[in-house]
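User: I'm putting together a teaching handout on how sequence relates to shape, and I'd like one worked example. Could you take Phosphodiesterase from Streptomyces violaceoruber, show the sequence you're using, and then write out its predicted structure as tokens right after it?

Assistant: Happy to. First the sequence, then the structure tokens directly below it.
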Amino acid sequence: MTRRRAVVLVTEGAAPELLDRWGPDVLPAFARLRAEGAWGTMRSELVPYEPPGLISAFTGHGPAEHGCFSYWDAHSPDYEPVVLDSCSPRRPLLWQRPELADLTSAVVNVFGTHPVQPLNGSCIAYPMRRTLHACHPRDLPVRLGKEGIHPAHDVNIWFEGQDREEFTGKVLGADRARADAALHLFDGGQGDPPDLLVLNLTAIDRLSHVYWQELEPGSPVAEEDQAVRRAYRQTDEVLGAFLDRADEHTEVLAFSEIGFGPLRAYVSVNDVLEAAGLLTKRADGRPDWTATEAFEAVQGTQGVNVNTTGRYKHGIVEPHRREDTLNRVREALLAHLNPYTGLPLFADVLRAEDVHSGPAADRAPDLILVPYDWRYLPLGDTHWSARVHRRLQSGWHRRESYWGGLGGSFGTGAGRTGDPLDVAPTVLRMLGRPPLDDLAGNPLGAAG
């Protein structure tokens, strides 16, 4: 039986309008993928954020099944953000499933892989804290270093208003090193070439957050020097290298679980709740938990939680009052006008139980906020938002991105709109493996 191989390249944050804007002259590999393979829209979860999207993609189950709604637990009992890790998902990642135990995998920079778990192959994990142990086998960094490859982790590269070239250079350099490591592993540089290679590139996302304003009309930055454009060009080069390795036995899937667009301002939901008498602040600006009924959840969830007794250390809302509190919070948020536009801040405020159904649905925030104008978004938990300098950003995620596949199982031409749940069954088909009955999605490919 002929061995099948699959490459999955995540180009985190890629915006379809920019792929179209720059086209084949700037992004020849993306153009090649579209011309020679299948191509379609990828639509994210209701809240476009990396953790729920990536974990859904590589488990084949939605957030209400795997339980990851952000980088952090949305319901930390003591209110301090708790980072999720490889032990958090309640469903196994695809390469951890026993049905694929005979296949070798190389996984590079995917959220949910740290602390690194042993696997049949190699892994450069995605740590959310500084660590010396983020690889499997443990000596992989040493062996890669001997080849001149030195991958860096995103946790070491935070934007704090530093020099543009310094930050851009570090972000691009980290992505390039991760790509070099992935190509080296794919080509068998550390042993047998893997059956499955998964690489997550983050430069487009990281630089779009900080330098989206350079893309807008009137920008003083020359187009060829725009930081985001440079990230797209480098990502295109990596995609081209993998497309060059495609053959009758090797297929390539590229996608992003999130798109991107402009950001004008974050709005503190806690301020809105305070004005409505639902939250009381301490002198340092953080909630006084003993006098707060509802508060904004961690960033990326676009959520609000009710300070319920039994669930939180200083909860004051008894369970029988939860429904009334939810109604009052919802009314206050829907009535609030965006201070920058005079229009509604939220198009809708949804109860978690109306959005999510599954064994991990209780991990979602109690209310989910749907922005009226995606240029104005909820700030998120003030403690962590301040630490990551969130107010310095000029771009944020959108729900629509793209997917593209090259290989016999994809066909050629336009395909349907997909979502992250379709990635896992697509990978199985690329590898020539039968479908798994418990997966919710369907393989991506050309229509008809």
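A couple of points you could highlight for students: The longest helix spans residues 164-186. Residues 65 and 359 are 6 Å apart (CA to CA).
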